[in-house]
Structures are given as structure tokens and as C-alpha cells.
Amino acid sequence: MGQDQTKQQIEKGLQLYQSNQTEKALQVWTKVLQKSSDPVGRFRVLGCLVTAHSEMGRYKEMLKFAVVQIDTARELEDADFLLESYLNLARSNEKLCEFHKTISYCKTCLGLPGTRAGAQLGGQVSLSMGNAFLGLSLFQKALESFEKALRYAHNNDDAMLECRVCCSLGSFYAQVKESMKIALQHGDRPLQALCLLCFADIHRSRGDLETAFPRYDSAMSIMTEIGNRLGQVHVLLGVAKCWVARKAPDKALDAIEKAQDLAEEVGNKLSQLKLHCLSEGIYRSKGLQRELRAHVVRFHECVEETELYCGLCGESIGEKNSRLQALPCSHIFHLRCLQNHGTRSCPNCRRSSMKPGFV
């Protein structure tokens, strides 16, 4: 079966599927998969089979076709096809509640070089990762992923993606609410503070700042009571983002200054990086170049202090979506840099790298 006939049969299957003749559509697509000699056509029909089995709740079959699609994408050596196939693999594992695998495949998607499909599928990758974090009850990470997905939806006017993110946020809210109930029953103050912070972040992401502020206040009260200074930093960061949304940059900077003092006391570099990034955006919008440069310099100092940079090219790790490689000696580099370096020993400590692991 050649390229033209493959296209015709794929279209025939789509028409059957859209008219609710699902089994007939599957038969047509399966025959195409068996007889077509066109690799691009095979990739497309595998995508149809993945989607159909997902909507039918046949998740093991979905996974089977997703694995075959990955192999086809590798044969084609096309970054767009690889991104789409890894996303399908992530979704398949998400449906089967293999959440760690889902997160791993989503990170692979984000680490692929820039693709034409990236703008369209990036939001779906973030959504799938958020669902996986939610499945593992990692609420803060789940919310961060949902917020990224929502930004993709708004930037690309993707109403369907926005609808799916809102559904996931509903599930998120329900799980946090249940956790809050348990925390209240057992008098678990740290868990109560965490739940209040999550509630506040949810309302902030929805633009409901009137509800977010009191939740942040309640969370801060408990965090202060139990002496959780890092928790206070997270609360103040959320408050600062609310003030930015309210177009009150001076109040945002007040919250950032308090959070920065606490983060420095604790020695938490990641929080400091986030605060410097937020400050950069505020000073850039105000046109205050001296203050902007100061925070840019401090940001890079934090990066150096945390050694968040590649030992080969010197670029910061995390500023761009790049695939990383961890060696057995625990040193981490950009994958592309190690491939170009062409040695099996670690460039830093010269130990044999043996079999590296992917991050």
C-alpha cells in the first residue's frame, strides 16, 4: 500500500470513527498498519489507534500502539514525530497509573530540541505531567504543571486544552480538600498549612485573588506558628505573584524582600532563584535598569553557587529545555555536550562513566 492509498484509508477510518462506527474504523486502520509501506502514514495511523483506544478506555492497547509509534518516529528521525510519540507514551502510562514513568516521558518531551509541534503540544505535556504529580499527591508540583498548561492554552487560544486543565484542577481541588479534612481531624498543623497554601495557589491560578489572599494569610499564620520558614517563603512568593497580577509592583516587591530574607536565612537557593526571577520581571516592567541588572547578577551568582551549569559548555541548566545526562560519579551535563565530547570518562573527575543514566 503506497502513500496515496494510505492517506485515503486513514481518511476513510476517520470518517467511520466520527460517525461512531468505531470498530469498523479500527479494522480499516489495522489493515493500513499491516499493509502500508509509507512510514509517515504508519505513524499517523498509529496516532489514530492510540487516540481511539484511549477514548474507549482500552489503555493497555493504547500503550502497545504508543510503543510501536515511538519506534516509527525514531526511524523517521523527526523531532516533531518524536515529541508526539513520547507524549502518547506519557499519556498511556498516565491512564495506567504509572505516574513515575509518565513524568519521565514528559521530561523527555520537554528536553527535545525546539520543534514546530512544541507550541501546540507543550501544554498537553504539562497537563499530563500535572496529572501524574497529582496521582502521586505531589500537590505543589501538580499545580505548577497545571499553571504552565493553562498559560499554553491562553497563549494559543486552545479552548479544549483549557477545558481539560480546568477538569484536572477540579480533581486537584477535591484531593486537597480531602487532605484538609484529614489534617483537621488529626490536628496536623503542617498538613493544614500545606493545604491552605495549595488552596491559595489554586485560586490565584484561576484569577480569584479575593479568595487567594485570605488563604495565604491563614497559611502564613500556621507556618509562623510551627516555625516553617521555608513554608513562609512559599506563601510570600504566592502573595507577591498576586500583587503582580493586581498590577501593584511595589507591594509585590515588599513581599519578595521578606521572602528573600527568609530564603537566605534558610539557605534555600532554589527559592532565591525564583524570587530573583520574579524581581527581574517587575523591574523590567518598571524600566529600572540598575535594579534589574543587580537581580540578574544575583540570579547568576545563585546558579553558580548551586552549580546549576554544564561543566562542558558552561551554560546554565534549566534556562532552556535540554536533555541532561547524569554519570555514575553524580556529575551532570547536557547530553549533547557529552556526545560531542566523545569520551567515556567524566570530564570533571575523569572517572569512567560506564553506563550513564538519563535525567
TrEMBL record:
RING-type domain sequence ranges: 310-350
Keywords per UniProt: Metal-binding, Repeat, TPR repeat, Zinc, Zinc-finger
Repeat (TPR) residue spans along the chain: 123-156
SUPFAM superfamilies: RING/U-box, TPR-like
Membrane-crossing residue ranges in chain numbering: none
GO cellular component: cytoplasm; neuromuscular junction; plasma membrane
GO BP annotation list: positive regulation of neuromuscular synaptic transmission; synaptic transmission, cholinergic
Keyword Membrane part of the UniProt annotation: no
A Gene Ontology molecular function term of the record: zinc ion binding
UniProt-listed PANTHER family: 43 KDA RECEPTOR-ASSOCIATED PROTEIN OF THE SYNAPSE (PTHR46574)
Family: Belongs to the RAPsyn family.
Protein name (record): Receptor associated protein of the synapse
